[in-house]
Design a protein that fits this description.
Radius of gyration: 25 Å
Distance between the termini: 54 Å
Helix content: under 10%
Order of helices and strands: EHEEEHEEEEEEEHEEEEE
Shape: globular
Length: 295
């Protein structure tokens, strides 16, 4: 469902010049609902299949001066506003949805090297595989500049800030697109180390349970991913979460949970998903003078 699609072109660049300047491309208030049936049929696969093959004996044409004068494209603004998406795969029992997607992208796509500017927000993300709910009404935002090398298909993140719900994160590194895989070298960390900001990861459907919650303490979060990513193969991954001497207190409860300490590591040496290891090195806290610890 696409009620509004607009595009505007710089007329002067269309008539003369080496580049066609697209002032704006806008897709607004649309709904996409890709579906894979239980038999594996996709509703976007609308091409008519044919068992016959036609062979052309025509020789390839020699390049002409016109080919050399092909114009490049400069997009001043690509915008998607209020896009709703829902994906259903009945064959694998996988379901995903985004209630509101907004995107702004600009850059010179005709140059071999350029700086892309991207602003992306997604609200109320949901993702479920069979009985496993991986995301429920989660928000995501990403504001970044990307140094793009189109010749070598290498993209470097610059001034990249993202957020998951209210948890702010910095993301840096490079991604190279190869023939059938990706080469990744990324690092991510949380600039705000207050323990209260970590609670932003609580799904919105459950946040009413932590209203008025008093917190103290700090945490550290850092993630690195380096190597190749393709089907059933992850890059080498290290994720570390440290919580130091934190506390939480519900207003209606007489005692706080104090001296919360967590040391959690998630790692993968680079390989299948089932090679991922979760190591809870430390978990300790104290309630009303009753300590609990697990190492």
């Amino acid at each position: 469902y696409i009620p509004l699609f607009e595009a505007s072109v710089n007329l002067k660049s269309l008539i003369s010049g080496n580049e066609i300047i697209i002032n704006k491309v806008l897709l607004k208030n649309s709904r996409f609902a890709p579906l894979v049936t239980a038999s594996g049929k996709a509703n976007w696969d609308i091409l008519i299949s044919s068992d016959t093959t036609s062979v052309s004996s025509a020789q390839p044409e020699a390049s002409t001066e016109k080919d050399k004068e092909d114009k490049g494209l400069v997009f001043n603004d690509i915008a998607i506003e209020h896009l709703q998406m829902s994906y259903s795969d009945l064959q694998s029992s996988t379901y995903a949805g985004v209630e509101d997607l907004n995107l702004q992208l600009s850059g010179n796509f005709s140059a071999s090297h350029t700086l892309l500017k991207l602003v992306l927000t997604l609200q109320d993300i949901s993702f479920r595989q069979q009985d496993n709910v991986w995301a429920n009404q989660m928000d995501f935002a990403w504001n970044t500049e990307i140094g793009a090398n189109f010749e070598e298909q290498v993209y470097e993140l610059q001034n990249s800030n993202l957020s998951i719900n209210e948890l702010l994160l910095n993301l840096d590194g490079k991604v190279a697109i190869l023939k059938d895989k990706y080469r990744i070298d990324l690092t991510m960390n949380a600039p705000d180390t207050k323990f209260a900001s970590l609670l932003a990861m609580v799904p919105k459907t459950l946040q009413h349970y932590i209203e008025g919650l008093e917190t103290s303490g700090d945490f550290k979060l850092n993630v690195t991913a380096k190597g190749e990513y393709y089907a059933d193969h992850l890059p080498a991954l290290q994720a570390n979460l440290l919580v130091n001497n934190a506390s939480v207190k519900y207003p209606e409860l007489p005692e706080a949970i104090r001296q919360i300490n967590i040391d959690l590591n998630v790692s993968n040496p680079g390989g299948p998903v089932d090679s991922t290891q979760l190591n809870l090195k430390k978990l300790s806290f104290d309630i009303a003078g009753n300590p609990f610890s697990m190492y």
